[in-house]
Amino acid sequence: MANEVTITFLGGLGDIGRNCAAIETDDALLILDCGQLFSGEEEPGVDSILPDVDYLFERKDKIIGCLVTHGHEDHIGAIAHVLDRGLEFPIYGSAFTLGLVRYRCDERDVMGRTELIEVADNETVQIGPFSVEFLAVTHSVPGGLISAITTPQGLVLHSSDFKLDPHPVDGRRTNLPRIGALAEDPGIRLLLADSTNSDVPGTTASESSMGANLAEVFRANQGRRVITACFASHMHRVQQIVDAALEDGRKIATLGLSMRKNVALARSLSVLKIPDAAFFDIEEISDFEPGELCIISTGSQGENRSSLATAAAGSSRWINITDSDTIILSSHPIPGNEARVSNMMNDLIRRGAEVVHSGLVEIHTSGHGKRDELTTLHTVSRPEWFVPVHGEYRHLIAHAGLAQSLGLSQDHTLLAQDGDQVVLADNGVSIRHGVTSGAHQMLNGRFLGPDRGVIGERRIIGEQGIVTVTAIVDFDKAVQVCDPWVESRGWLDGDDGSEIEEEIVKLVAEAIESELQNPEWDRVTLTRKARRAAGTCVNARSQRRPMIMPVIIDT
Ligand SMILES: [Zn+2]
Ligand SMILES: [Zn+2]
Known about the structure:
Blueprint: E1 5-11, E2 13-14, E3 20-24, E4 29-34, E5 37-38, E6 48-50, H1 54-58, E7 63-67, H2 73-76, H3 79-84, E8 91-93, H4 95-108, E9 116-118, E10 124-127, E11 130-136, E12 145-151, E13 154-158, H5 176-184, E14 188-194, H6 209-220, E15 225-229, H7 235-247, E16 251-255, H8 257-268, E17 293-297, H9 307-312, E18 325-329, H10 338-350, E19 354-357, H11 371-381, E20 385-389, E21 391-392, H12 393-405, E22 421-425, E23 428-432, E24 441-444, E25 447-448, H13 452-464, E26 466-474, E27 479-480, E28 485-489, H14 494-516, H15 523-542, E29 547-554
Parallel strand pairs: 2-21, 4-7, 7-8, 8-9, 13-14, 14-20, 15-17, 15-18, 16-17, 18-19, 26-29
Antiparallel strand pairs: 1-3, 1-22, 3-4, 5-6, 6-24, 10-11, 11-12, 12-13, 22-23, 24-25, 26-27, 26-28
Helix pairs in contact: 6-7, 14-15
The protein binds zinc ion (ZN) (2 copies).
């Protein structure tokens, strides 16, 4: 008889992002990834969205460490924040992953709260009651690790984000043979596997097949300056861009802070190979002819203020886009970024540049395995129980369906969502729904919040503007000292607004006057009357619903 082991999902089962789970025994809690979700236009002003980390804070004393499967922000992006808010734990991961974690922790000055423990492929580490074997996995960032976690309730295999690339750029293939051996002995009790591409048939193209296509684009653009953009952590793509550029006799510089830092880290770990003689600093760009250059930039997602978007807008300090530039976007817009990328491409083309993107030439491939690869993982691992992870709801459902089509029974395929807990016990594996809220936690600078109310206010102000009306009242004499006045931002153009403003002043003055006749009047009732009078007029006359903010001042 062993005690229960639970796995609580704090994010990542409902969105692609903010992956985080807690695997626990009675007295130990190991965090499995701790990532963030980038906020969209739905959450104005929010920097990022975190997993439901309250669960971790409530169990602060049980935390024995955090495993980081790989260095993408949706897996490591919340770590610095939870350390900053007071948690302390060691972090286990590959050298490259930990290098990226260190950057984030240094930025927040929280390295004092953690210890980075590097693990190698095939290494087994004892972390409290868990014995964790780390296995190589292919993905769109170097150093990804599958975790085979031996718990008091059997072996849990966590796939990490993965594809089964037969020809990875670094030659480091997913360790399927070892997974097969574990399936044989001791057997995999529970599989948690990436669902991102579970509704896409076939197989994801090998990363190395991008190299030849990139080389062809370089050859076709001899004599022109080539500026490429890809994800700043995708060092295998960077390597292939570098190889294509070197073959074409070009020298390489990076543009953008995260690309510069990540390339430096990858070179120091020999994950990325660029001869010193072929590498120059962007500050020396004017020493070279356009045809001698390859610039590797951030901004493949058209992010505001990223280097490529800045150059597209004509305000880059280093590069002025002209008709002798070819821009290679070796990426695909992630959902939500399409419009931004499209705007950036228009800006680049308007400046005369030629833009080569993954819709024209095959210069991007996903980091996530499609259905055939998921099938292989299931077939090799033969888990007793399965929980699809890392995906939107439709991906989780598709992955569960795939597992069942391969012979897993319906009651051994558990569908969990954020906030749910998987319980491994002697008599089987089951789900407890809603153990924690699983709610999005918005991060604003260093602070958690704002809540939905504040986000709603921001959206009203952002979309409709704000109208304030200020009245001065002598509270002792119960009279208005002067006419109220109106100010607005983001509501109407000055001339259109001023006529309505006069009317608002008149109506608010009347409303206050009449309320002051009421023996029960106080500041609250005055404010309410003023808001109502102003709001009715604003809505009727402008057909808009800006935020109305009445201010009553006592003399
Ligand atoms: Zn990833
Ligand atoms: Zn991910």
